[in-house]
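W.,

You were right to be curious about this one. When I first looked at the sequence I had no strong expectations either way, so I just let the prediction run and decided to look at it fresh. Below is the sequence, 288 residues in total, followed by the output.
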Amino acid sequence: MVTAINRRDADDDEVGQFLIGLARGTAGALLFALPMLMTMEMWFLGLYVDSWRLLLLCILNLPLLLLLARRIGFENIHSWNQALRDAITAYGLGIAVSAAVLLLFGILNDQITASNIVAKIALQSVPASIGALLGRSQLGQHSDAEDEEEGEYSGETGYLHELFMMVVGALFLSLNVAPTEEMILIAYKVTPYHILALCLLSVAIMHGFVYALHFKGSHQLHEGQKWWQSFIRFTLPGYVIAIAIAISIYTLWTFERLDHTSLSQIMNAAVILGVPASIGAASARLIL
């Protein structure tokens, strides 16, 4: 009898924790995706965005959510099955929150087709789903010490894991500005000197956030390690691979900001988008 009561209490506690996780995920989706949900360019993109590019974005979001959930799911994650469940849950929350907010704002009216409605919600659900997972790390009550005791946080992590977290941070922040017309306008206005200065600024921001400024969650150089070793090993690959090449160009291509533009304009736009993306990549280690 006592065993049955204890088991029921444990099940109730597990359900309660999961519901709290859902509430935090919903809050995280709103907190991180609301700027895009209120951006006119994102509304209009749903009317003409290429369906195959949108489908690719949604497909790529699934393994990204899975790997992210393995680190920060709604509960303590101990297996890939649990991570998959939380990734699907986060995607569902992203879709639900996006649809609800767009509906409340009157964006999903009866003058657009069903395919346009699906496209509008799908576009917004990607950042909203990432925000739903980030909601646990940002809105949770666990301290770093408690997380370390529970096995969620282990201090220094592997090289590939670090690059992956940089990609998540860069993608998340760049999604907020990549759809805007201002990205292309700035690309036309800047000179080569501006581009060089922006490259140097982005690299300096990344290295400063992670190693030099000693923010909470940032890296500390090992004894005897030179600053340029971490600069070459993490900062430059993080900027060149995770930001300037992969994330910036991909997001701009997805939102059709690179169509009918020259190679120089494409590189200019990638470097410009690399500034907020570098901040997102650098801060990923601090907030995730």
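Here's what jumped out at me. Residues 2-37 form the longest helix (36 residues). And, maybe more interesting for your project: The two ends are 42 Å apart (CA to CA).

Coffee later to discuss?

I.
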